[in-house]
């Protein structure tokens, strides 16, 4: 087991870091005693300590000295100052994993004085409930051991795939930002149900379960989404009427464009600041 006996230190216990910590602890693959979290916000640390029973610290340096895997989950603009604090303390036996959007492997490596294995990951917030979608790329000093560590962490909280670093902007545009697109779809489906007379709570539960069920069908049935769609469409029936409206309104093109816009924005942010 790539994680057994290892200490995982998470720097930044916010929306994404907190989701990862909670997902890892509830996966059962990382005992709370093997998890350390540091953050500048004491109230976040108190909450994580109470809810997850993990150890917390305010000093990133102590965490970097103690952890075997250091997971950087601060905002991209804070990464440099954290590396200036902890960079010289990191050792080749450790793995530094960064989830900061747009922060390149070469930027991370250049700001650590000695050669340390670095892995860059783009996860998403459903890691909180064990249904994350993550992709990772290896830095120049990272080898199979580091890939196995990253794969073990991110597959404990969902699905994880290895990609070339150049593809991480596209991953950000699709699955990194994607939960927000899907929440918008769920909200709109529920609004449609309410408009047609359903109580709000019933409409929301049906909308969310429909998205969950359809996603699980795609992931388990080995059939193309178009084939699964065709199985729902009765000739001359209700679904064909609904689908025509979605096609007329350009929903398919809107989703393609959303992934494109987020990918381009990810590239733009990354090039401007982190290359
Ligand atoms: N929110 C999301 O859906 C996703 C976020 N990410 C990446 O995750 C990283 C964190 O994003 P969020 O969790 O959304 O932000 P957030 O603002 O919720 O969390 C950042 C945390 O870092 C803490 N922090 C700030 N300065 C610090 C320092 N010097 N030392 C230790 N902790 C410090 C903050 O107090 C906060 O708790 C970002 O780099 C983002 O690009 C990646 C994928 C998805
Ligand atoms: O919106 C953002 O920039 C970050 C990256 C992926 C999800 N949230």
UniProtKB/TrEMBL annotation:
Residues 165-269 form the Pyrroline-5-carboxylate reductase dimerisation domain. It is found in: Cytoplasm. The gene is proC. Its EC number is 1.5.1.2. NCBIfam families: proC. GO terms for biological process: L-proline biosynthetic process. It comes from Thermodesulfitimonas autotrophica. One of its GO terms (molecular function) is pyrroline-5-carboxylate reductase activity. The keyword Flavoprotein does not apply. It is an enzyme of class 1 (oxidoreductase). Catalyzes the reduction of 1-pyrroline-5-carboxylate (PCA) to L-proline. Residues 7-102 form the Pyrroline-5-carboxylate reductase catalytic N-terminal domain. NADPH binds at residue 60. Keywords: Amino-acid biosynthesis, Cytoplasm, NADP, Oxidoreductase, Proline biosynthesis. This is Pyrroline-5-carboxylate reductase. The keyword Oxidoreductase applies. It catalyses: L-proline + NADP(+) = (S)-1-pyrroline-5-carboxylate + NADPH + 2 H(+); L-proline + NAD(+) = (S)-1-pyrroline-5-carboxylate + NADH + 2 H(+). NADP(+) binds at residues 11-16, 73-76. It comes from the Bacteria. Pfam families: F420_oxidored, P5CR_dimer. Its main location: cytoplasm. GO terms for cellular component: cytoplasm. Pathway: Amino-acid biosynthesis; L-proline biosynthesis; L-proline from L-glutamate 5-semialdehyde: step 1/1. Belongs to the pyrroline-5-carboxylate reductase family.
């Amino acid at each position: 087991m790539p994680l057994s006996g290892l200490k995982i230190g998470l720097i930044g216990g916010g929306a994404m870091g907190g989701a990862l910590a909670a997902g890892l602890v509830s996966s059962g693959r990382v005992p709370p005693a093997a998890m350390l979290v540091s953050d500048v916000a004491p109230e976040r640390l108190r909450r994580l300590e109470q809810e997850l029973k993990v150890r917390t610290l305010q000093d990133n340096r102590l965490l970097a000295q103690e952890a075997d895997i250091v997971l950087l989950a601060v905002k991209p603009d804070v990464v440099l100052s954290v590396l200036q604090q902890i960079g010289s303390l990191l050792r080749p036996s450790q793995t530094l994993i960064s989830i900061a959007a747009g922060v390149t492997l070469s930027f991370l490596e250049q700001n650590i004085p000695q050669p340390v294995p670095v892995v860059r990951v783009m996860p998403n917030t459903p890691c909180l409930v064990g249904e994350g979608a993550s992709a990772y790329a290896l830095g120049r000093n990272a080898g199979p051991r580091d890939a196995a560590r990253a794969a073990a962490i991110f597959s404990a909280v969902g699905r994880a795939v290895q990609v070339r670093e150049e593809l991480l902007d596209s991953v950000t545009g699709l699955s990194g930002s994607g939960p927000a697109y899907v929440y918008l779809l769920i909200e709109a489906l529920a609004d449609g149900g309410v408009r047609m007379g359903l109580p709000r709570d019933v409409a929301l539960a049906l909308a969310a379960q429909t998205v969950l069920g359809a996603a699980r069908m795609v992931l388990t049935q080995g059939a193309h989404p178009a084939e699964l769609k065709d199985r729902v469409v009765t000739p001359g029936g209700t679904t064909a009427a609904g689908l025509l409206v979605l096609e007329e309104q350009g929903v398919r093109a809107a989703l393609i464009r959303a992934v494109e816009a987020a990918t381009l924005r990810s590239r733009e942010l990354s090039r401007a600041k982190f290359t």
